[in-house]
């Protein structure tokens, strides 16, 4: 309403620009509304300005969106939930139990790229024969530790990099199947370890394994060659843990020499 009144005033005295200036001073909020009709005379330039400004805003928004997407999807350390996976896999044990058909294994996997280690928690299995466990693969120290929860004992051995995928690769594998829940169906391999002696100095195992095994009886393991597997496993005292940190499932049998 006020604007219309002013334009009428301007129309009455078009030669007096000073009147317009006064009105602008009195009612500052009208300033832009008044100036706009004047600017419309040089619309090609202002149009270009508007377009450039709009483009700049749009590009800034695009850059910000890209940064957000990059941080959210490619830098998992930013968001702890991106490091934790609940995994399920179907597998067959074609060597020891070919008639049993498909079995299922589930576990929780935590991948810590910055500290270069993986933590795996295997719950009590649906069918017996394997112990629940917490496992740490410390790539910085080159060690693997199994905490057998049923026995409440810890076992430490050199990390075997042909069985355990490095954290970055495992993370990429799991992030790709995260939405599908199940990993591709796979097979089981067996390995057998034998206890060699007690670990006295726990600190030498590194901070993460130390935290896992602190206050528990901890033993060193050595790998037993596959040719010895003909021995009756039942004769010795063996416990096995089934786990996966690669595209296949591993059964680690931990045996105490009789
Ligand atoms: C690692 O595991 C593979 C497959 O079981 C085995 O053939 C190899 O001897 C192991 N390497 C070491 C250093 O234990």
TrEMBL record:
<keyword id="KW-0325">Glycoprotein</keyword>
<comment type="similarity">
    <text>Belongs to the ITM2 family.</text>
</comment>
<keyword id="KW-1003">Cell membrane</keyword>
<keyword id="KW-0735">Signal-anchor</keyword>
<protein>
    <recommendedName>
        <fullName>Integral membrane protein 2</fullName>
    </recommendedName>
</protein>
<comment type="subunit">
    <text>Interacts with BACE1. Interacts with APP. Interacts with STMN2.</text>
</comment>
<dbReference type="InterPro" id="IPR040145">
    <property type="entry name" value="ITM2"/>
</dbReference>
<dbReference type="GO" id="GO:0005765">
    <property type="term" value="C:lysosomal membrane"/>
</dbReference>
<keyword id="KW-0597">Phosphoprotein</keyword>
<keyword id="KW-0812">Transmembrane</keyword>
<comment type="function">
    <text>Negative regulator of amyloid-beta peptide production. May inhibit the processing of APP by blocking its access to alpha- and beta-secretase. Binding to the beta-secretase-cleaved APP C-terminal fragment is negligible, suggesting that ITM2C is a poor gamma-secretase cleavage inhibitor. May play a role in TNF-induced cell death and neuronal differentiation.</text>
</comment>
<dbReference type="Pfam" id="PF04089">
    <property type="entry name" value="BRICHOS"/>
</dbReference>
<keyword id="KW-1015">Disulfide bond</keyword>
<dbReference type="GO" id="GO:0001540">
    <property type="term" value="F:amyloid-beta binding"/>
</dbReference>
<feature type="domain" description="BRICHOS">
    <location>
        <begin position="127"/>
        <end position="221"/>
    </location>
</feature>
<keyword id="KW-0165">Cleavage on pair of basic residues</keyword>
<dbReference type="GO" id="GO:0070062">
    <property type="term" value="C:extracellular exosome"/>
</dbReference>
<dbReference type="GO" id="GO:0005794">
    <property type="term" value="C:Golgi apparatus"/>
</dbReference>
<feature type="transmembrane region" description="Helical">
    <location>
        <begin position="48"/>
        <end position="70"/>
    </location>
</feature>
<dbReference type="GO" id="GO:0042985">
    <property type="term" value="P:negative regulation of amyloid precursor protein biosynthetic process"/>
</dbReference>
<keyword id="KW-1133">Transmembrane helix</keyword>
<keyword id="KW-0472">Membrane</keyword>
<dbReference type="GO" id="GO:0005886">
    <property type="term" value="C:plasma membrane"/>
</dbReference>
<dbReference type="InterPro" id="IPR007084">
    <property type="entry name" value="BRICHOS_dom"/>
</dbReference>
<keyword id="KW-0458">Lysosome</keyword>
